[in-house]
Amino acid sequence: MKRDGLSKLHTAHVVTSSCDTLVVGAGPAGSSCAHWLARHGREVLLVDQHCFPRHKICGDALIPDALEVLERLGLLSDVMAHSQATDHVRCVAPSKHWVDLSAPMAVISRFVLDEILLKAAVKQGVRFQPGLCLEAVSRDPNRANAVNGAWFRKAGERVFIPARQLVLATGASSSALEAAGVTYRRAPSAMAMRAIIRHPGLRKEVEGLQIFWHRAIRPGYAWLFPMQDHTYNLGVGVFDVDKDWPNQKVNLRNIFNRLLEVNPLVARLLREGETIGQLKGAPLRSGLSGAPPAQDGLLICGEAVGSTYGLSGEGIGKAMETGLMAATSLLTSHAYQGLEAMRPGPIYEAALDALRMRYAQYEKANRINRQPWFAELLIRLASRSAHLRFQASEVLNERRSPEDLVTIGGILGMLWKRS
What is the rounded distance in angstroms from the CA atom of residue 150 to the CA atom of residue 136? Predict the structure, then answer.
């Protein structure tokens, strides 16, 4: 609902108790933000339209950035106890040549992960209310920091929650951004589709996380991630879909079917395995360009602001990281009350600006998904060069720019320096 509909909401409503900070969305970004605020003494109300635990369409992989945030939250050991850990990702070229890149990683169902994050936030003192669907954000026209609460719908009733600060962590869907009355990019950056398959006899043939490139699934890529209990997260993704949106929408199901035609391992998994999570798709927002991060005292974090990486499609770690950034911005602003320069919006925007160059590099590096021949070249070179494999692993650990690996000059430069 847009701002001009606010007047209609002032009838037949329930006003709940107020809070210092209202966080909308209890996924990784929202729960991490609420957790950090409560740990530092803030009164936080966390709301979500769903009851937890709930299923979420995702690749379910945690790469090093996610593990670092979990360690910062004190949740790494708990999460790893419910995860399938691995120390490498296997990159498979169209010709079936492959190379392993080393990095600590894990795979865990979002059904489990998000509940762990939510319970940890509640343990810190966060109040949680499920079943609240955002309808509009309330703004006081007489205040510079205009947001003063939000309207929701719950079981047919309109509910108003007053709040001093509001954090929006509602994921890639545009409906919540529209309800909040903020400017946003309607088209998603990417689309992904995945299924969960159980196959007890395939474990020895699936080493680490696996990423596939092939002309048949261009301009996308595919993944096969082993999980606990002999299950696998199998999916396909395509980036840059916003360029032709909505005139030419990507047919992910066709891409998925073509994957089965060219990949015998995946075809066997589908043929012999038991499907326990149906093939479903979801939008993604990447490049920190989903919506403005701050407006009228409202902070937006996670995939709503475009926290997913453009090359890999990984979004859990950066969603949590932006949630902590939003929380830190609010805490810093509170410590410097009265200083115009220390409002939470500018602090948060400055923190995100420090990440923008890396996001731009990942957007450029996405050419490897559009041009499978480049994946073929890179994998063949890396299979012959321990130095190049090390540098590619450094990209996973965010210690090297991914842009270096997707240009001929960058690759030759690394090989020349080594020689």
Answer: 6
Residue (of 195, 237, 216, 239) closest to 363 by Cα position: 239
Q: Which residues are CB-contacts of 29 (< 8 A; sequence separation ≥ 6)?
A: 169, 301, 302, 303, 304, 307, 319, 320, 322, 323, 326
CB atoms within 10 A of CB 280: 14
| φ and ψ of 111, to 5 deg | -60, -40
Adjacent-strand bridge partners of 164: none
Three-state DSSP state, 105: strand
Q: What is the pLDDT of residues 119-159, one digit of tens each?
A: 999 999 999 999 999 999 999 888 766 899 999 999 889 99
The answer to whether the beta carbons of residues 45 and 26 sit under 8 Å apart is no
Sheet holding 98-107, edge to edge: 61-62, 98-107, 84-92, 209-212, 220-226, 231-239, 190-198, 274-284
Which structure tokens are listed for 80?
Answer: 């790893």
HEC profile for 55-94? CCCCCCEECHHHHHHHHHHCCHHHHHHCCEEEEEEEEECC
**Angle subtended by helix axes 28-39 and 64-73, to nearest 10:** 30
Rounded alpha-carbon distances, angstroms, from residue 385 to 90, 375, 390 = 15, 15, 9
398-416 pLDDT, tens digit each: 888 877 776 666 665 655 6
Residue pointed to by tokens 């009228």: 296
Helix residue ranges, H only, 106-237: 110-123, 174-180
Q: Phi-psi category of 302—alpha, beta or left, where left has phi over 0 and alpha has psi -120 to 50? A: left
Helix and strand numbers, DSSP H then E, in the chain: 13, 17
pLDDT in tens, 271-313: 999 999 899 999 888 888 878 899 888 999 999 999 998 777 8
Kindly state the average pLDDT of the residues 13-28: 84
d(CA 379, CA 388) in angstroms, rounded, equals 10
Joined together, the tokens standing for residue 351 give: 């923190």
Using CA atoms, how far apart are residues 71 and 104, in angstroms rounded to an integer?
Answer: 13
**The two structure tokens encoding residue 382:** 């890396």
Pairing status of strand 220-226 against strand 231-239: antiparallel
Q: How many CB atoms lie within 10 A of CB 129?
A: 16
Strands (E), 213-271: 220-226, 231-239
The structure tokens listed for 304 are 């709503």
Give the whole-angstrom CA distance, residue 53 versus residue 110.
Answer: 9
Find out whether 252 and 281 touch, Cβ atoms under 8 Å: yes
